[in-house]
Specification:
single chain; mainly alpha; Serine Threonine Protein Phosphatase 5, Tetratricopeptide repeat; 2 domains; 15 helices; globular
Length: about 230
């Protein structure tokens, strides 16, 4: 598929009402067709993996073209510089999260970028670091516990960031680590309890919300069932 073909299809799927609805969620109405994710998946499947097209889609700058870029980009061809370049252009949580879920987690630089981006000041670059932790905690099933324990200091350090999209991602990362297995669950609970002692509104929210889920009967039962199955 060509960029022009994709733009035409996105235009055909768009409606003024949907664009107006997107605007209420903070998305620039001039930069969205308000096309739903299932439709974007269908288009991406038709396009296949295409590095050149992905670059063109990203540079087009629309919500949909950037999400499509993440879907069709070949992770083996992604460079560290490309990841940095795309990350600094995140201007909305959805683009950030879709890029981490669909593409960045599959690159060889995913773990490296977590450490680098967690130190950045830009809200969505920092969010990307913790979104990657959460996504890898779900999908990198063969990774040892140590891979995720190394992120606890980052989670503690950034728990005082009061920005909405950062604190939610920090919370997301902590909860997902703590749901991998019973050992990480216990350690994540300890970390959350330590975070709760910090004199920070965001830290206390992150800790309270994480503890509620990590200590819940649902999570504890699931992790306990996993233990019995693995014996």
């Amino acid at each position: 598929m060509k960029l022009e073909e994709i733009i035409k299809e996105l235009e055909s799927l768009s409606s003024p009402e949907d664009v107006e609805g997107m605007a209420r969620f903070g998305i620039n109405p001039q930069k969205t067709f308000a096309v739903r994710i299932p439709e974007l998946r269908r288009i991406a499947k038709s396009a296949g993996k295409d590095h050149k097209l992905a670059t063109e889609l990203w540079e087009a700058g629309y919500r949909e073209t950037r999400i499509l870029a993440c879907m069709i980009e070949d992770p083996d061809l992604v460079t560290s510089k490309q990841m940095d370049r795309w990350a600094v252009e995140f201007d909305f949580w959805e683009i950030c999260d879709q890029c981490c879920m669909k593409l960045f987690r599959r690159t060889p630089f995913a773990y490296q970028k977590i450490f680098e981006w967690s130190m950045r000041d830009e809200e969505f670059v920092k969010r990307a670091a913790f979104t990657l932790i959460a996504v890898l905690a779900v999908h990198d099933k063969k990774a040892p516990n140590e891979k995720f324990e190394q992120f606890f200091p980052l989670i503690i350090r950034e728990s005082t960031d009061n920005r909405n999209y950062v604190k939610k991602a920090v919370n997301w990362a902590l909860r997902h680590i703590g749901k991998r297995n019973i050992n990480l669950n216990q350690k994540a609970i300890e970390i959350a309890e330590d975070i709760h002692k910090i004199d920070s509104k965001s830290a206390k929210w992150i800790a309270k919300d994480a503890l509620r889920e990590l200590k819940s009967d649902k999570v504890q039962k699931r992790l306990g069932n996993n233990i019995r199955k693995n014996k």
